[in-house]
Design goal:
Length: 182
Amino acid sequence: MKKYSAIIAARSGSTRLPGKALLPLKNIPMLTFLIRRLKTSQKINKLILATTKLSADDALAKLAKNEGINVFRGDENDVIKRFVEASNAENIEYVVRITGDCPFVDGDTLDYCIEQCDKYDFDLATTKTYFPTGIDFEIYKASVMQHLHETLLTIEEREHLTLPIYNRAKEYKIFDIQPPVI
């Protein structure tokens, strides 16, 4: 059986909307809202926040610790490096990538996606283009990202975690997760 851990990517330094992860949603910080929704998952082993080492992200790290989840602090600009180091530190086999600005994902939908992933062999599984915008999960083998991290990638690929896989789609097994039929 595959083991999945979810890593939430969040930082305060967004250029479009700085500090968005701490903006209120239902009278609590958006990141708190997101963490609480994901904690209902029955299929993930761990839930981790991956943020930067910058002091501006201390509030995010404190919030995550207060919510009882692990925190990994890494490189500000190299997202691949941050995720690989977080995966290695937590001994993760399959990573569920969640962005801190998608508060409407939830544990039930995450569990459905993991159930679908258990049926297939894949390097990357994604809900993109099949689920509504804002219900985004990308699930990948940590070993695949480790390999990519060790290769020569562009700055853009290092900033956008799964972009190198999409850019090399012929080399990887990409599984499109379809929404449930209701």
